[in-house]
Design brief:
Layout (H helix, E strand, L loop, with lengths): L2 H5 L20 E2 L20 E5 L6 E4 H5 L4 E8 L4 E12 H4 L11 E6 L3 E6 H4 L5 E6 L2 E2 L9 E3 L12 E7 L44
Parallel strand pairs: 1-5, 2-11
Antiparallel strand pairs: 2-3, 4-5, 5-8, 6-7, 6-11, 8-9, 8-10
């Protein structure tokens, strides 16, 4: 049974009206930041680490760690929502806003889809308009401290309005594409879009999720 099938089997409802509509249906509020990781946690030599952008011109663009740190730095305070049913309010991320990173790039009009890549061989597909939202950030810090390795150091993507599997950890690049191609979890039963307020958890939404499994995960914040 794959992860999507296991998660479908639990039910953990929450009354969202108590939080002024901030808590999506089916979510539970937590003050901690659970660690959910598939596979090994990578370690890096920052002198060799890079971030690449393809499909936004004739050549692939490469940014070193220092290149990204020299771009305008911003902070975003947002709510985050995991498909495993936890939500965390007022999370502060610092890094490079995507609208600043992509400013000046001539992305072809036909390339309205983005494949986000992270180590190791992790991918998530995202519509370009989702990536361009004002609070989407390539983050290196969380609540005033550098991201821990388990949370995506040195950089992770943060897309607050989508379930958090779309916020790729250990990010290594974007590819702008003319067609939508499912990423890792999207190929394994998760919804293609992932809007938490629409409960777009799975391709087949006829089942519900195993209760409270995220509470068994580790925390390092």
């Amino acid at each position: 049974m794959n992860k999507a099938e296991r998660l479908k089997r639990s039910k953990d409802p929450q009354v969202t009206e108590r939080f002024g509509g901030r808590l999506p249906p089916g979510q539970v509020l937590t003050e901690k930041f659970p660690i959910l990781t598939v596979g090994e946690v990578p370690s890096y030599d920052l002198e060799e680490w890079d971030f690449q952008i393809a499909g936004a011109g004739d050549e692939t663009l490469r940014f070193s760690y220092q290149d990204l740190m020299e771009l305008p730095q911003s902070k975003v305070v947002c709510d985050i929502h995991c498909v495993t049913r936890w939500s965390k309010f007022d999370s502060e991320f610092e890094g490079v806003l995507l609208k600043d990173l992509l400013d000046g790039l001539e992305i072809p009009k036909d390339n309205q889809y983005v494949m986000v890549s992270g180590d190791y061989d992790y991918t998530a597909n995202i519509d370009l308009q989702d990536l361009l939202a004002d609070d989407v950030i390539l983050a290196h810090s969380y609540n005033g401290k550098p991201l821990t390795e388990k949370h995506g150091y040195p950089f992770r993507l943060v897309i607050p309005h989508l379930y958090f599997w779309k916020s790729v950890k250990w990010i290594r690049g974007f590819e702008f594409k003319g067609s939508d191609t499912p990423g890792f979890w999207e190929q394994n039963g998760f919804h293609n879009e992932g809007d938490p307020f629409k409960e777009q958890r799975f391709t087949d939404e006829s089942e519900v999720m195993e209760k409270g499994k995220w509470k068994e995960k580790d925390f390092d914040y």
